[in-house]
Amino acid sequence: xxxxxxxxxxxxxxxxxxxxxxxxxxxxxxxxxxxxxxxxxxxxxxxxxxxxxxxxxxxxxxxx
Length: 64
What we know:
This protein is α+β, with helices and mostly antiparallel strands. It has one domain (6-55): Orthogonal Bundle (Multidrug-efflux Transporter Regulator, Chain: A, Domain 2), CATH 1.10.1660. 41% of the residues lie in helices and 16% in strands. The chain has helices at 9-16, 20-28, 47-55, and strands spanning 6-7, 37-39, 42-46. A hairpin with a 2-residue loop joins strand 2 (37-39) and strand 3 (42-46). Helix 1 (9-16) packs across helix 2.
């Protein structure tokens, strides 16, 4: 959702440089934080929620 602080799975995948299917799998397996909001069937996360979650992941390093 460009222009907002809320991120879709696709946008989270883009941030992580992973395929969307991988992030969808992370969510279904309970590896991701619960969505901050649901718009219909679309889960949405605050950017701050994802940033905090990524900071706790040892296997993730943000590339510049």
